[in-house]
Amino acid sequence: MDVLSSGVRKGDRRALAQAITLLESSNPDHSCDADILLASLLPYSGNSIRIGISGVPGVGKSTFIERFGLHVLALQHKLAVLAIDPTSKRSGGSILGDKTRMEELSRHPDAFIRPSPAGIRLGGVGHRSREALIACEAAGYDVIFVETVGVGQSETTVADMTDLFLLLLLPGGGDELQGMKKGIVELADIVLVNKADGAMARAAERAVSDYQNAINMLRPASNDWVVPVRACSSLNGDGIDDAWRLIGEWRNVMQSNGAFEHNRHSQAQAWLWDAVRDRLEMEIRLQLDQSNEMREITKSVADGQLTVSEAAKKIIMRYRVGKAT
Ligand SMILES: Nc1nc2c(ncn2[C@@H]2O[C@H](COP(=O)(O)OP(=O)(O)O)[C@@H](O)[C@H]2O)c(=O)[nH]1
Ligand SMILES: [Mg+2]
After folding, report:
1. Residue nearest to atom 9 of ligand 1 (CA)
2. Residues 183 and 312 in one domain
3. How far apart are CA 26 and CA 223, in angstroms?
4. DSSP state of 133
5. Among 117, 217, 262, 306, fewest CB within 10 Å belongs to which?
6. Residues 316 and 172 in one domain
């Protein structure tokens, strides 16, 4: 673990990839090594801006990340791109499938792209991705993008692990805002109307003012920040530098009013309880998964003979008894 950890801290990309694989592993045999590794990396983490990027499939997230990422890299930053995609088991991972749209980025020596971990339940994905994010920071990546598909649940997971939430919208009418879960729009710190080019340029301008009006009617998350809506084109690069400037402004405001630090502190606390839940579940499963009792309880729940909350109580009671003997 010492060798791996110092490899990561030196910025060795292969070591980083290997470290993340270990941190993401759901194999209980790896969990001890993973803990040691994470503890050794944690003191070197935190020195970054963590940006969540969301929007419905087709809005242009991958194209945007490529264009925006290259802009950020040109400013001498090191960029890591992670993905949270609860559907990745079926689709093979949003980033992996889109690597062709991030061709230049994926070849860049200062960029690190990591597809979403497949086959873990959603809560687990967030938990693992946070650890992956820590590893990236320890490796010297000072800008982190966390991409998600704009379909609901995963957005909150991403918002819980990032500093800033960037929402991409299409230059359609206000229908899109209605169609999209309102909760997702409320998470946004910056909104970009993508595809503001060619035949869609004028529609995009209209959409910007429609969305801005709609967003101004929401209760702001911070009194110090009015969520800005801007147009951009990931295809020709218009508005891309403006987006980065806005992020800088946002950061200045949130760091001087203390919200940036405060948010990270409460995220760390939430992370702790996620970890407690995960660990407890793992222990209980290790002890009971193969038992007849567990099979009976699960079957009774499936048959509707037992309520979930009664079943949970039974499992915990059984676990405690097992622990005591
Ligand atoms: N005209 C135009 N097309 C874009 C823009 N950004 C993305 N696209 C196109 O929109 C489609 C979906 O883009 P993609 O990045 O895969 O979207 P994702 O599903 O959100 O990752 C692709 O055909 C892109 O070429 C843009 O700014 N302008
Ligand atoms: Mg994509």
Report:
1. 60
2. no
3. 41
4. H
5. 217
6. no
CA–centroid distance, 10 to ligand 2, in Å, is: 30
Distance CA 229, CA 323 (A): 55
Report whether residue 101 contacts ligand 1, using a CB cutoff of 6 Å: yes
What are the pLDDT tens digits along the chain (325 aa)? 899 999 999 999 999 999 999 998 877 788 889 999 999 999 999 999 999 999 888 889 989 999 999 999 999 999 999 987 655 444 444 445 556 678 899 899 999 998 766 544 444 556 678 899 999 999 999 999 998 865 666 788 888 899 999 999 999 755 556 556 667 888 899 999 999 999 999 999 999 998 898 888 888 888 999 999 999 999 999 999 999 999 999 999 999 999 999 999 999 998 888 888 878 888 898 888 888 999 999 999 999 999 999 999 999 999 998 888 7
Q: N- to C-terminal Cα distance for the chain? A: 34
Domain boundaries, position 316: 268-324
Residue 48 Cβ inside 6 Å of ligand 1? The answer reads no
Residue 59 Cα to ligand 2 midpoint, Å, equals 8
For residues 171 and 300, state if they share a domain: no
